[in-house]
Design goal:
heterodimer; A: alpha/beta; D-Maltodextrin-Binding Protein, domain 2; 2 domains; 15 helices; about 40% helix; about 15% strand; globular; B: mainly alpha; MetI-like fold; 3 domains; 2 strands; about 0% strand
């Protein structure tokens, strides 16, 4: 069989033109990278996948447009938290204005992806939910837009301006806080013996509370707890941690329980480990523990002592075109007003960032229980709190992390 | 029969009176062009989506242009300064140049980016740059000097050496600093020095990655060979069923399989509960969150990659050879060892190199079941890309990984030979 050159060239030309057509059509989709797992509530592999997968990029199908507008792309964390945002923010907004939304679950990688989008000069996201530290980083790098709080956000329902209502939670010029959440410790009520732990140092007390513990695989929070339980006064912790000796001291304290430690990467890991009985106590975000205790009925108790406050909120990517920016700011005005932030608390036990929302927090939408007592900001729970020191960690994060990972891997 | 024509030099001529050698060369050339055109789309695709990003990554691993681009006058002024043992701070000219650069950088919001970049090398710099950026925009370059005292008055850190030394070390357009960091060294003004042991992780991780990948390859080989032999040598209907059983996990999601291993291996998992219930052990064995867990889970996941090449090679081994060996008096074992096994080695080679290269780059399974001691270098690369945004270090680690794989490939070629790799 001889090869007819003309036929081969014709075939190649056809294939090449098909390929070009496909590339041209495909690249106009927005950069959705919904992970291959669904956004169910607590589950094990799901959240670790959304944290550390890069291979499983699927393009999510856009919902059918209810209006002539293009859908806005919102980025969040998936799971119960994203569902509470959908229930409280986007569904009411769609009902009144017809604007549709696409939700992307990429908040875990938001900073890296925004930087990449910025370099490629193609911003496909309209509003991104990030934690406080990430927001500061994005603001530093010029990847997030500066917000004029009093003119762009609604005033509080009690008459205060936006700046007064959010108060000291405005940790950055680019960050609009939505919730206050905390990293707390949960414990198995049936595996800790007769006296439930009330002190954070129960984590390090393997005599009274034998069994495994789960801590985050990042040094954040663990270093502070280690120093606190090693005898450092709360006011001095960050000064001590800024020194080499202080860092070594914290790691030495953690080393005393290293054989009993399991490390988690995703918020859903610890509730799963507690439910399985793999660990007797472990740290995670308080909303996850609330879901496990109240919604799933697991025998888990909350240890609120030395909970670490952090904020989660919105940033607007810098460089959005005018029309999209206008739509986003309109949605933002609605989604960050007093009632909306109080509404979100109906589905998840994170405290609203506005002072005026606190008295409006009611009951859980499905379970009918009072949410106020489950908030990290509730006075009964907030007797001994830490607030994440963003300045400290942005300076020392890389340094401490190198030591922490070396200790982990050893 | 046509007579063969010859030209004056005695060369054979073709029907259209060309010398045969010339005609042959032209025909071969045309064939090569046709072949090239056939693979041209694939070649282009591979160049654009594979080769070019790799060069991009390698460039990022040495690129330091952010510092001289954001602080050009400072870098120029620092050229004449060397940090001495006496601990003298740079002259006023450097401070003035720095303030001038910072004014422009603060205006363009790039001062925090360069501060963050320098913070990777020396902690504490990011906040100094951020704080200075807020103040420096109100200063008047012509009248507010001298700037050395003014800077030190705003923050004592400007009177210390660490910021200036770091800028000085990282002032070129290109740097070896990322590669130094990736082999647990540090680039300082005295050259490359070793890091403290409590900060050195990468060499250990590289070694661990290679070691675990070798163990995974060997265990895949040991487990996969009998299955491939069975597939190739039983009746067709059993072989088909067996092949489906091999391929079925292959078609299941990777995360589902890894999570299933979590359920099996954890302390309160199926295996430990079973062993405790029949009385073999009284406390749970640590089967997960360590290297054992990673090796077991990854062996399971990479097994089809080993079985399929081996199977396809074994399928081509004629069974008459083994029968001939037995008819000449060989026992089963000798016939296998001396006749069958050497013919299956190319398949083992193909499977081994496939499994090894896949294993070295894995990071999902080690992240889920590896705990803290069973993670691979790729987990750190992913961490540097997503969390710390130290893309230069991630690129350097990736570049080293690439180099390692290329060296191992070359070794494999020397000892086994790439031509000895067949996929059937």
């Amino acid at each position: 069989m001889t090869i007819n050159l003309k036929r081969v060239l014709a075939l190649l030309a056809f294939v090449a033109s098909m390929g070009l057509l496909a590339a041209a059509c495909g690249s106009s989709d927005s950069g959705d990278s919904a992970t291959e797992t669904s956004s169910s509530t607590d589950s094990t592999a799901d959240d670790s996948a959304s944290n550390d997968d890069a291979a499983a990029d699927d393009v999510a199908a856009a919902p059918a447009d209810a209006s002539d507008d293009d859908p806005l792309t919102l980025v969040s964390w998936g799971g119960a938290y994203q569902q509470s945002q959908i229930n409280a923010y986007s569904e009411p907004y769609t009902a009144t204005t017809g604007q549709t939304f696409i939700w992307d679950e990429s908040s875990a990688d938001a900073v890296a992806k925004l930087r990449a989008m910025n370099e490629a000069d193609n911003i496909t996201w309209d509003l991104v939910d990030v934690v406080g530290a990430d927001a500061i980083r994005l603001c530093d790098e010029g990847l997030a837009m500066e917000i004029d709080f009093d003119s762009m956000l609604a005033a509080g329902d009690d008459g205060s301006s936006a700046t007064e209502d959010f108060g000291e939670y405005l940790i950055s010029d680019c960050f609009i806080p939505q919730i206050v959440y905390s990293t707390t410790v949960g414990f198995r009520t049936d595996l800790v013996g007769d006296t439930a732990p009330t002190d954070i140092c129960a984590l390090f007390d393997t005599d009274t509370y034998p069994g495994k513990r789960s801590l985050e695989s990042r040094p954040l929070n663990n270093m502070e707890w280690a120093l606190l339980c090693d005898g450092v006064a709360k006011a001095d912790i960050y000064d001590v941690l800024a020194t080499d000796e202080g860092q070594d001291r914290a790691i030495a304290k953690l080393d005393t329980i290293k054989d009993d430690l399991v490390f988690w990467n995703a918020g859903a890991d610890t509730p799963q480990l507690l439910a399985d009985g793999e660990v007797v106590m472990g740290s995670t975000y308080n909303g996850r523990l609330f879901s496990a205790i109240e919604e799933d009925g697991q025998p888990i108790g909350m240890l609120w002592d030395a909970q670490m406050f952090d904020f989660d909120g919105w940033v607007v990517p810098a460089g959005l075109p005018e029309d999209r920016l206008k739509k986003v700011m309109d949605f933002l005005y609605f989604a960050t007003d007093t009632q909306r932030l109080a509404d979100q608390a109906k589905w998840i036990s994170y405290g609203p960032a506005r002072a005026s929302s606190a008295p409006l927090v009611g009951q859980h939408a499905d379970l009918g229980i009072d949410m106020a007592q489950h908030m990290p900001t509730d006075p009964a729970n907030a007797t001994n709190i830490f607030v994440t020191q963003y300045g400290f960690w942005s300076d020392y994060r890389d340094d401490i992390d190198a030591k922490y990972q070396a200790w982990l891997a050893g | 029969m046509t007579t063969v024509q010859m030209d004056t030099a005695g060369e054979i001529l073709t029907a259209d009176n060309q010398p045969l050698s010339v005609a042959l060369r032209k025909a071969l050339f045309r064939q090569k062009v046709r072949a090239l055109l056939l693979i041209a789309p694939l070649l282009l695709f591979v160049l654009v989506t594979f080769v070019w990003p790799i060069f991009g990554m390698l460039w990022r691993s040495i690129d330091n242009s952010i510092v001289p681009d954001t602080l050009p006058q400072t870098v120029a002024a620092l050229e004449s300064w060397t940090p001495t043992d006496s601990g003298e701070t740079p002259p006023e000219a450097v401070y003035a140049a720095f303030v001038a650069d910072m004014q422009i950088a603060a205006e363009e919001r790039t001062h925090t980016v360069v501060g963050g970049r320098l913070n990777y090398e020396t902690p504490g710099i990011a906040s100094k740059f951020r704080q200075l950026g807020r103040e420096v925009q109100d200063w008047d370059l012509a009248r507010d000097g001298p700037f050395k005292e003014k800077l030190i008055a705003t923050d004592e850190a400007w009177g210390e050496l660490f910021i200036w030394e770091t800028i000085n070390t990282y002032s070129g357009n290109y740097t070896t600093g990322y590669y130094a960091n990736s082999v647990d060294r540090r680039l300082t003004s005295d050259g490359i020095t070793a890091r403290d042991a409590d900060e050195s992780i990468y060499l250990r991780l590289f070694w661990r990655t290679i070691f675990m990948s070798i163990v995974i390859t060997i265990s895949c080989g040991l487990l996969g060979y009998p299955i491939a032999w069975l597939l190739a040598n039983t009746l067709d209907r059993y072989a088909n069923l067996l092949l489906i059983l091999v391929l079925l996990p292959f078609w299941t999601s990777l995360l589902v399989r890894t999570s299933a291993w979590k359920v099996l291996l954890q302390d309160q998992g199926v295996i430990n509960n079973f062993l405790e219930s029949i009385g073999i052990t009284d406390s749970p064995l640590p089967l997960m969150h360590n290297q054992f867990g990673t090796i077991v889970a990854m062996t399971h996941i990479l097994l089809p990659f080993m079985i399929l090449p081996m199977y396809s090679v074994m399928k081509t081994i004629p069974s008459s050879y083994t029968r001939a060996a037995k008819s000449l008096g060989a026992t089963d074992i000798t016939a296998f060892r001396r006749v069958y096994f050497p013919q299956s080695v190319p398949g083992i080679g193909a499977g081994a190199i496939l499994v090894f290269i896949l294993a070295i780059g894995y990071y999902i399974t080690p992240a889920i079941v590896g705990g803290s001691t069973g993670i691979f270098i790729s987990n750190r690369i992913a961490y540097n890309i997503s969390s710390t945004l130290n893309w230069g270090l991630a690129a350097a680690l990736g570049g080293l990984l690439l180099l390692m794989v290329m060296v191992l490939y070359w070794l494999y070629d020397r000892f086994v030979g790439i031509d000895n790799v067949k996929l059937g």
